[in-house]
Amino acid sequence: MHVKLTSDFVSVDGRITLGEEPLARLRALPGIEISTITGRPTNHPLEARDVTACDILIGKRNRLDPGLLDLPDFRLKHIARMGVGYDHLNIDACTRAGVLVTITREAVRRPLASAMLALMLALAHRLVERDRLARRADWATRFAIEGVGLGGRTLGLLGAGNIGAELIRLVAPFGMRVLVHDPGLSPDALGQLGAVSGSLDEVVRQADFLVLACALNEQTRGLINAARLAQMKPTAFLVNLARGELVEEAALAEALAKKRIAGAGIDVFEREPPARDNPLLGLPNVIVGQHNLGMTDELDRLGQMAAVDAVIEVARGSLPASAVNPDAWPHTLRRFER
After folding, report:
1. Nearest to 203, CA basis, from 227, 183, 232, 246
2. Domains and CATH numbers, the chain
3. Whether the predicted pLDDT of 309 surpasses 90
4. Among residues 61, 110, 181, 243, which one is catalytic?
5. 273: cis peptide before it, omega within 30°?
6. Is 334 annotated in the active site?
7. Which CA distances in Å does 263 have to 167, 210, 281?
8. How many percent of the chain have pLDDT more than 70?
9. Which of 291, 298, 301, 331 is catalytic?
């Protein structure tokens, strides 16, 4: 069995950077062969030589062109994705081709939720503005800037899956009201989390902090557009660590520039990296990241272990609970047996 690691797990000098324990567990598999993809950017689309030369791929954000699935010598059977989003993969095409896709849900739960809370707190305390004043030694106006407390404010959450539910748990000590729009969860399930269910319009209108924690799909693409931004309170903040395509950036930049909303914390963009003249980068009421605010040693350690655990389960002939397309499994198993 041949396992290939994408360049996310390879240093510039070609060394494997997968952690010592997950790498040891991977190497302990009988009949295992490990190789790497080198010399290409981490987000580079997979190429024919990648999918015809390995059985299992461990990676992060490398796209897979469905056309590669039809190659006569196509060999890839399992993509072990370190991370939780999989909008860069055509899951239906993978399922038809017998390619199992697994993700690392639990590994990202706390790091991403805590990063969301970090942005909420930074916006509430106007941390970036205060940092700029301090660096300019502008002490004369230090009491002119006032932040906002979280107590009694409304957290409007779009999506309360693994990460969103963890954010609800993290904000509990702050005494926030939590209003959630998630069609996949019942009001009873949300009630057990300490949240209240609301329609999309209700959540957008009532939120003091509108946090996006939903998946990107055809229903959610452009979800936060000019019309929905116009529904938000002028004192409200938008936080997005999910996917940039959930938000129409031009509309958001206009709303922020004209102070129709108070501010935003943005870790993801419609196009990554964003253009240098992207207006969001020049606005003083925006905190930006590089799709990396959740990157911690905790996420790295847990994510690597979870991805390798999925590989081990597949190698032993078991369907991992982390599979996003379990319908592919019977076909995947047959392909391994050939």
Report:
1. 232
2. 2-103+297-337 (3.40.50.720), 107-288 (3.40.50.720)
3. yes
4. 243
5. yes
6. no
7. 20, 11, 13
8. 100
9. 291
pLDDT tens for 232-270 read: 999 999 999 999 999 999 999 999 999 999 999 999 999
20: tokens are 């010592």
In contact, 9 and 18? CB cutoff 8 Å: yes
What are the contacts of 141-150 at 24+ separation with CB within 8 A? Answer: 148/124, 148/208, 148/235, 149/124, 150/120, 150/121, 150/124, 150/174, 150/175, 150/176, 150/209
Length in residues, the chain: 338
d(CA 258, CA 68): 46
Q: What gap in Å lies between CA 180 and CA 210, rounded to an integer?
A: 10
> Which among 111, 103, 216 has a CA at the least distance from the CA of 166?
111
The upper half-sphere exposure of residue 213, i.e. CA atoms within 13 Å in the direction of its Cβ, equals 31
Q: Is 40 a catalytic site residue?
A: no
User: What is the side-by-side strand order in the sheet with 56-59?
Assistant: 33-36, 2-5, 56-59, 78-81, 100-102
Q: What are phi and psi of 81, to 5 degrees?
A: -85, 120
Neighbouring-strand partners of residue 57: 4, 79
Q: Write down the catalytic residue from 15, 21, 272, 334.
A: 272
Query: Rounded CA gap, 12 and 254, in Å?
Result: 40
Q: What is the pTM of this model?
A: 0.90
Give me the residue label for tokens 């290939």: 4
Active site residue 291: yes
